Amino acid sequence: MTLPFGISIFRAINRDAAKPQTRQFDAAADGRRGSSFGRFFGSHGPETLAAAGPVRSRARHAYANNPWIRNGVNAIVAETVGAGIEANSAHPDATTRAEIDELFSTAATSIDLEGRTDLRGLTAEIVRAEIVDGEAFAVIEETETGVRLRLIPAEFVDESDTRELSNGGYIVAGIEFNAEGVRRAYHIRQHRPTEIFTTSHATIRVPAESVLHIFRPLGPGQVRGISQLSPILLTANEFDQLHDALLVGTKVAAMHAGFIVDQNTIGSAIPEANGLEDVSLEPGVIRVLPAGTDIRFSSPDQAKDGIAFARLTLGQIAAGLGVPQHLLDGDLSNANYSSLRAGLLPFRAKVEQFVYHTLIPQFLDPVFCRVITREYLSGSLDVADLAHALKAEWLPPRPMQVDPAKDAGAMRDLIDQGLMSRRQAVASLGWNIAELDTEIAADRAREADLGLSFNGETNDQA
Questions:
Q1: pLDDT at 16
Q2: What span, in angstroms and rounded, lies between the C-alpha atoms of 424 and 431?
Q3: 185 and 230 Cβ atoms separated by less than 8 Å
Q4: How far is CA 37 from the centre of its chain?
């Protein structure tokens, strides 16, 4: 039945308006829950350039003053570098391979321009700077005695130098690019590290092939690194304040005091002759109080849940740093074999990812290529094809095992079942299989010559 025209108009006017359609991604909504989010985060390039300096300064302060952050960072450095990441030439000829290894090993011992350490020590400093500062720089210098490396702080690369160039290139935070976006040079300030004012010196242009820039980008378009401590700096600062508050609270709670109260409210002083003006607590002492007096003790409040909340906060800091919590605070009271192994496996996977995705391609491989090229040009290395001589296999340090016997048994089973080669097993322990086999053969020959046996058997002597 068709309604009269007047009634239809009346209903249309008084009908409730339809609710406006809204987007369905809750993470993009404002409202009560979304109001606490950061209001804006642009592309990674501008965001990291704006935040790198302040974050780096705070990260250095935290590493220098916060014992938990220092312990966590040092744990990552120790797991990544350990005693050193060893290079082994991948040249197909065994004789040439041994010659290249000897040349690089000799050069690595004196590669530090300041003469304080070797390549192993410089690698540890690079890793530490990449974590704390977010990036590390090493300048390659050719000297009369060979290739040398000079580490420079991140602020030496002029962060204030951003401009367009007449040839179509551009400079972003001290790093020069050509028109195609390829790095061509670094603009580095020349001054002594002991000087206070780092921005008072002019910069010099250093070709990109002589500068190693090590950092992990968060996304495309990022030119400079951001500290790996950035997700935890605010939490670590709040935790410091919490720790100080708990410490002060514990001191206050330890102030156990007693008060003698005159219940008769006469107002007269306690007779000095009775020795009650300054009564101390002593074990095994019985004191008689005058009639009408009472004694009361203070009972300051203690933070009952403070320890549990502090442990939760340490877990948050450890997660942000990417380490198991026991490597942050050294607390193994709640740990067992399974929990330690479960915590160390993903941690070591992250370290391995950093080594093979960042440290080797950005630092170790370029250093190896530069050293071997120098030896080739100087005539110390005679090879027909330089390209084969520039390839190296890097062996990270052997990780410490929670239960070495179980790990060795599992590795032996994998080899027996054809799921792992012996070369892979030896490399996972941080050794080169050729060197290991040579040492084993030499040991066996020496044992046979001397009639020694270390496996319960007696060698036959002629």
A1: 62
A2: 10
A3: no
A4: 26
